[in-house]
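Entry:
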Amino acid sequence: MDDRPHIHVPAWADVGLWRIGTAPLLDQAYARATWVLVAQLVALGAIWLSVTYHRDTSAIEVVIIALLVAAALAFSVMQAGLVWLAIARNRHWDTPSNRWLSAGLGVVMLVASGFVTYAKTVPSITELWNIAHGDAALRDGSMAVSDDGTQLFFARTFSLGTAEEFKRLLQSAPNVTTIHLQSPGGRLGEAVEIHDTIRARRLDTVVDDFCFSACTIAYLGGKERQLREDAKLGFHGSAFPGLAQSELDKTNRAMLRFLVAAGVDVAFARRAVSTPAESLWIPPATDLVDAGVVHKIIR
C-alpha cells in the first residue's frame, strides 16, 4: 500500500466549515489551514489599511478591528480543534502518516495564529487605541514664545493635536521668526503639518541640542536651517508597533519623496528612510551640510 499523502481539492461541503467533514483527513487539514491563513490575512489587512490610509482613527474603528482580530483567532482555534477532533473520533480513518501530518498542521495553525496575535495584531491595536484617545502618554514637554516675541521654543514629542496647538501659538505671536526644535520624535503626520506651517510662514529652524525621528521633518520646513555645533539630528524609517519595515513601504516611499522635495540629497534621503525604525542614524554635521539638510552650523 502506498502511504504517501495524496492531496486533492475537496468540495467545501466535504470539509465542513463548522463541523467534521467527510473529505479525507489530510485534505480537511490543508483546507482548514488555508482558511486560517485567509482569516489572519484579513485581520492583518484591516490593521494595515487603517495605519496606511486612515490617519484620524476613531475608537469605534479600533473596536471593530479588535473584534475582527478576535474573530480570526477564535476561528483559527476552532479549525485546529476540528482537525484534532476528527483524528480523535476516527482513529482508523486514513493512514498513520496522514493522521500525523494532519495533527501537525493543527499545531501549526494554533501556534501561527497565536504568534500573529501576540506579536503583530495586539501591539498594533494597542497603538491605534492610543491614537484614538489622543496620545495621552505622549503629551509631555512644552511650547513657549520668548519674551521678545521672536523665538518659539518647541521641546516636546509630536503627539496628536500638537500641530494645531503649534498653529494657535504662532497666531498669537505674529513676530516669531525662528523655531527652536528639541524632540525625540513622535507622530509623522503631526510633524508634516508643523513643517508646512513653518514653511508657509517662512520661518527659520534651529536645533540647539537634539532633533530625532519625526522632529527632522518639522526641521526641514525652515527657510534657513541652522544646527548648533554639538547638536544632533537623527533619522530612521517609519515605525508602527506590530508592523514590519516592509509593511510600511508606502510611508517610507512618501517620506523619501518628501526629503528630496525639501532639498535633501537623494542618497542621503535613501539611507535615512532605510535605517531600521528600532535604530537611529546620526550623521556628522559636515554630512548634514553637504546633503542639504542643514544650511548653517552655529559655532
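The chain has ten helices and eight strands.
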